[in-house]
Design goal:
This protein is α/β, with parallel strands linked by helices. Helices cover 38% and strands 17% of the residues.
Length: 355
């Protein structure tokens, strides 16, 4: 595995100087952030990222994300233009040495939480999702300024309402068809320049605000991989996105999709699933802090030949750190060292077992 860390560019309070001191750090995961969704990234911006990262002794091999324009997900007539721009971005990042591109196909809202600084008993704060708070919001009617992390902040209140309204007649099957249309154009372009595409599961992995969500469980991931059945059409296994539903056996999925060679990127984090569908709280990475068995997941990846990129996902805020929710330095760095430890254990365990 290649250990990686997400960095939001020059504006990020967490610096490349900080990140390079985390043991075993290989790859920086980032993107061009100053271009509107659907537009082509300038070669200069991509080259600048590469240079900054390499000057700090790390590699620029993963992009998270090249976002998918809503008109592609909605299947609107101008989607071909946006898909062509998408393919051009793939070619441009490949030229700079990128090997893997993470993206998602969630209508309108990316990852959604209802509390950004939920206090935990040890004095840290974390991200949480309480279903009843989500159920109380109707983006079509709400007159509050809805902004939560992960949401595209460029929407005005009216803009958000209007894009949500366009999905009112969208069924899951229609969204599948639009995803297939996108993949049939994008995957051949990615293959040509050696990029592995890695779709991120929907977070949380169920419908919110009445919008369809389809990248949610094993059955749907099986269906997704068959849409274009080549290795470049793969997944980002996000343990927290899948693991917030008890229906998903994340270790089993890790084993299965790693053995198929279809996991190109892994987001590792732990969640505490609340009883009776009440939601979930994000927790420290350590298995005993949440509902997921992180060792079993890493072991499943390792023993099934996973050799892609892995990054610690969201961290809590600890030691008084302030910053981008989920993306501070300290708790993610603790997560990274824990992942190093789990991987070393899985490796040595397998070696001992085969002696
Ligand atoms: C959240 C992230 C997601 C992810 C996108 C991929 O922390 O994991 O925002 O980057 O869904 O497109």
């Amino acid at each position: 595995m290649k250990l990686s860390f997400r960095w939001y560019g020059q504006e990020d309070k967490v610096t490349l100087d900080n990140i390079r001191q985390i043991p075993g750090m290989h790859t920086i995961v980032t993107a061009v952030y100053d271009v509107a969704v659907g537009q082509v990234w300038s070669k200069e911006s991509i080259a600048r990222l590469k240079q900054q990262i390499e000057e700090n002794g790390m590699h620029f091999e993963v992009v998270e994300s090249i976002p998918v324009h809503e008109d592609i997900k909605l299947g609107k007539p101008d989607r071909d233009l946006y898909i062509e721009n998408y393919c051009e971005n793939i070619r441009r990042v490949a030229e700079a040495g990128v090997k893997c591109v993470c993206y998602n196909f969630m209508p309108v809202f990316d990852w959604t939480r209802t509390e950004l600084a939920h206090p935990l008993p040890d004095g840290s704060t974390t991200l949480a999702y309480y279903q009843e708070q989500v159920d109380a919001v109707n983006p079509l009617e709400s007159d509050s300024d809805l902004t939560l992390p992960g949401w595209d902040a460029s929407y005005s209140r009216e803009g958000l309402r209007s894009v949500v309204a366009q999905y009112q007649s969208m069924t899951e099957e229609k969204l599948w068809a639009n995803l297939q249309y996108f993949l049939e154009k994008v995957i051949p372009a990615a293959r040509e320049c050696g990029i592995n595409m890695a779709i991120h599961e929907d977070d949380p992995c169920w419908s919110i605000f009445g919008l369809p969500r389809i990248i949610t469980d094993e059955k749907n991931l099986d269906r997704f991989l068959k849409l274009v059945d080549v290795p470049n059409n793969g997944i980002t296994l996000c343990t927290g996105s899948l693991g917030c539903s008890c229906r998903n056996d994340v270790a089993k999925m890790a084993a299965k999709y790693a053995a198929m060679g279809r996991i190109h990127f892994v987001h590792m984090r732990n969640v505490a699933v609340l009883p009776d569908g009440k939601g979930f709280e994000e927790r420290a990475h350590l298995s005993s802090c949440g509902s997921l068995d992180m060792y079993e997941i890493i072991k499943a990846l390792h023993d099934n030949g996973f050799d892609g990129y892995i990054r610690p996902d969201h961290g809590r805020m600890i030691w008084g750190e302030t910053g981008r929710p989920g993306y501070g330095l300290y708790d993610r760095a603790l997560g990274a060292t824990y992942l190093n430890g789990l991987w070393e254990a899985a490796e040595k365990n397998k070696r001992t077992a085969s002696k």
